[in-house]
Design goal:
The protein has twelve helices and no strands. The protein is globular and about 55 Å long.
Length: 291
């Protein structure tokens, strides 16, 4: 019989997705912004390595390997969360027009897309949720009016990433997945395989040796962004309400915008601040609309 999660475990998992995931936007920009790594190849290396490390650790502890149905479920999650979600972010941040803070602002709309997708699973939206959707998506319009997005390839990739991550998170409880942290390991392994395969067919090859800053950023993404924070997110999806699991959307944009400004000199315009407030208000209305 599964034991309910302890409060300290939930708090640590929330802190990991709040703070660490907020910082990964900066790390991604450092890793791919100067084209040190092809975006999808970098993502594939990141998740394959992190998944392999976690899988080996769990096996040494005597954990059972996933069954066939669980590998299939992990592949579905890897496709939507990692190829579609994370892959869209790394592609976007390889675009010079897309800063790390801006990327985090667009991805913050993920709970809005999740609310829309929930209608397909028999959960009609209340009027407050529709209001939240209207307010939240108007924040994206503000970003576009200010010239931050301009609907470049990177901007489109961010929208697709938010939609893909939302859909994967929505269907996660309907899939057969491994128990505990083995779910994280299997999803990262399969997501890494998918990203590397897609890069082989449609991505770009490495043209030069990466800078040491890019290598350190990739190492940070592997250890903290994937092994720790992604595992924390999967833990939350399985043990708390979806509204709480996706509440990292409030903190990530603020952390990412601040770090991008501090470390790589990304600009913060008044309209970005207004758009961030509008998006987060919309997200807040949506995630608190249902008890």
């Amino acid at each position: 019989m599964n034991q309910p999660p302890k409060t300290w475990q939930i708090i640590l998992a929330l802190l990991s997705v709040y703070l660490i995931w907020g910082s990964t936007y900066l790390a991604i920009k450092v890793a791919v912004g100067e084209h040190d790594f092809p975006p999808l190849l970098m993502g594939g290396i990141r998740h394959l390595t992190a998944g392999g490390i976690l899988f080996a650790f769990l096996k040494m502890r005597g954990e059972a390997s996933p069954k066939r149905a669980e590998w299939i479920g992990a592949s579905v999650m890897g496709f939507f969360l990692l190829l579609g979600g994370n892959g869209g972010v790394v592609i976007a941040e390889s675009d010079p027009q897309i800063g790390s803070g801006l990327a985090a602002l667009v991805i913050a709309t993920m709970p809005l897309w999740a609310a829309l997708f929930s209608m397909f699973f028999g959960q009609p939206l209340r009027w407050r949720e529709w209001l939240g959707l209207l307010i939240g998506f108007s924040g994206i319009i503000l970003l576009n009016l200010n010239g931050n997005l301009n609907w470049s390839t990177g901007a489109v990739a961010l929208i697709i990433a938010a939609m893909s991550w939302a859909f994967g998170s929505t269907i996660s409880r309907k899939l057969t997945l491994p128990k505990g942290f083995m779910a994280s390991a299997a999803q990262m392994i399969m997501g890494g395989v998918i990203m590397t395969t897609v890069n082989y067919f449609v991505g770009s090859p490495m043209t030069r040796a990466p800078r040491w800053e890019a290598i350190l950023a990739l190492a940070y993404l592997i250890l903290f962004g994937s092994v720790i924070a992604y595992s924390g997110y999967i833990f939350l999806l399985k043990n708390v309400r979806p509204a709480l699991a996706t509440s990292y959307a409030y903190a990530n944009p603020m952390v990412a915008v601040l770090l991008g400004w501090l470390f790589i000199g990304e600009s913060i315009t008044p309209m970005m601040i207004v758009a961030m407030a509008v998006i987060l208000i919309g997200v807040g209305i949506v995630v608190t609309a249902k008890k």
